[in-house]
User: Fold this.
Amino acid sequence: MLLDSSFLIDLLRGDDAALAKRRELEDRGEAPKLPPGVLFELYSGASGAEGQIDILADRLPRVDLSTEVEQEAGIIRRGLLRGGRPISEVDYFVAAASRIEGEPVLTEDDHLGELGSVKVERYR
Assistant:
């Protein structure tokens, strides 16, 4: 399971649905990962939550921004741009990591679910 920034932001804010999903993942014994770019998004909008983000960064394993992830992200971006449906830059890396790892993305962002080969799990 890859954790998107939307989930992590809600988790840091103490959102009930996000907290319940975290407990569910723990109960299932899942080891969620941080995809490339998510920490960048969190730190960009942190405004006082840097310490909490540091804890997440220390505790959760990460999917590396490897050549394979960058290549896949570029392919996804090229296809979406041609189709006139661009998404945020970081989400190209999240989608690529999901495809390569074969893991769903825990998010509330609709556009990731619109990518046919990216599985999305919602927490609301």
Summary: The radius of gyration is 14 Å.
